[in-house]
Amino acid sequence: MAFSDKILEWYNKNKRDLPWRASTDPYKIWLSEIILQQTRVAQGTPYYLNFIETFPKVSDLASAKQETVLKLWQGLGYYSRARNLHAAAKMVVDDYGGRFPDTYKKLITLKGVGDYTASAISSICFNERQAVVDGNVYRVLSRYFGVEIPINSTAGIKYFKELALEVLHESNVRDYNQGIMEFGAIQCTPKNPNCGQCPLKESCVALKERKTDVLPVKLKKTKVKTRYFNYLVPLFVSGNGLNSTLLKQRTGKGIWQDLWEFPLLESESDIDLKTVKENYNRVLGIKEEAMVTLFNTEVVVHKLSHQHLYTKFWILEIDAPMPDAVPISELHKYPVPVLISSFMNAFKF
């Protein structure tokens, strides 16, 4: 039995019951693929269901405000995916009359849709002969065929794409592509793969040569950058007590673009209360004095893919209102990074 036939047979017996599996609607498949990029199925599924409920059609997503989309995405990370999702929905409506393009060449023109996503949508929805290559597929192919070319190198990306096309099933591209991704997700797992019960074990090079723990090969990651974030959390007190604070929207192309956060004092190293007192007027743009206290006794280390943020939250009590202050009762409406959301919950606004 051919490699692709074994994958199909395994998939028909072992596939998970996932909410988008019963559909060939390109909107639903596209949505699931974007959400599941760099996200586990268990974490991404509730988000998928919320998006489908909130935006049943691509036109609903296209007409939504970006802040609404970002708020619904909150907690998934890699927020450029959400911005691209919104932009691509608008492209489908404006350029294709609200109907998803039905070929790889057209799909790959959408914002945020690369080779993998275009291949997945075109093959699953339209059975187009396109091979998907994601992390799971890299792992299965590199182990089965014993390929030691780094999967994140230029040569590796080209080689594995060609190999994936070569072993593509002759007729049932739709299920085969889903099958090989599923196989990598729950059978040929990154650690402790179930080789004893694997239908490919008789021909797997990695198993034969005892290389399952070293394949696939990946080039070393980019060096992690350390940053020091000091969030200044102003609490504006009126005659009725605490009623407002201040949020600022992040701009530029860095992390968390378009999300909201408390005024930020970034430093080159860890700073103390004295330094905060010397700088808060400049950061907040106020002249009033504040009583400053540190909220978290231990530094919060928030880890992103290439950055570690060493974070302190400083509480500033100020007996004066600000014209652009945000009412405490409105805080929940703003899309914020998980780091800020966790603080809000801990502080119990």
TrEMBL record:
Its cofactor is [4Fe-4S] cluster. SMART domains: ENDO3c (SM00478), FES (SM00525). Binds 1 [4Fe-4S] cluster. InterPro entries: A/G_AdeGlyc_MutY, DNA_glycosylase, Endonuclease3_FeS-loop_motif, HhH-GPD_domain, HhH_base_excis_C, MIG/MutY, MutY_C, NUDIX_hydrolase-like_dom_sf. Its EC number is 3.2.2.31. Residues 35-186 form the HhH-GPD domain. GO terms for molecular function: purine-specific mismatch base pair DNA N-glycosylase activity. Keywords: 4Fe-4S, DNA damage, DNA repair, Glycosidase, Hydrolase, Iron, Iron-sulfur, Metal-binding. It catalyses: Hydrolyzes free adenine bases from 7,8-dihydro-8-oxoguanine:adenine mismatched double-stranded DNA, leaving an apurinic site. Belongs to the Nth/MutY family. Adenine glycosylase active on G-A mispairs. MutY also corrects error-prone DNA synthesis past GO lesions which are due to the oxidatively damaged form of guanine: 7,8-dihydro-8-oxoguanine (8-oxo-dGTP). PANTHER family: ADENINE DNA GLYCOSYLASE. This is Adenine DNA glycosylase. It comes from Maribacter chungangensis.
